[in-house]
Amino acid sequence: MKKSTNVFVCSECGYESAKWNGICPSCGQGNTMVEEIREPVSKKSGSKVRFSPSDVSQICVNSIDINEEVRYHTGFNELDRVFGGGIVKGSLSLLGGTPGIGKSTLLLQICKFLDKNLKILYVSGEESKRQIKMRASRLGVENENLYVMTETNLNKIAAEIEFTNPDIVIIDSVQTMNNPESSSFPGSVSQVKECTNTFLKLAKSLDITILLIGHVNKDGAIAGPKVLEHMVDAVLYFEGDAQTSYRILRAVKNRHGSTNEIGVFRMDSVGLQEVENPSMMLLAGKPQNASGICVACVMEGSRPILTEVQSLVTATSFGNPRRMATGFDYNRMALILAVLEKRAGYFFSAMDAYINVVGGLKLEEPAADLSVAIALVSALKDIAIDDRIIAFGEVGLAGEIRAVSNCELRITEAERLGFEKCIIPHYNFVTLKNPEKKYKIEIIGAKTIRQAVAEALNQ
Ligand SMILES: Nc1ncnc2c1ncn2[C@@H]1O[C@H](COP(=O)(O)OP(=O)(O)O)[C@@H](O)[C@H]1O
Ligand SMILES: [Mg+2]
Ligand SMILES: [Zn+2]
Question: CATH homologous superfamily for 66-276?
Answer without folding.
Answer: P-loop containing nucleotide triphosphate hydrolases (3.40.50.300)
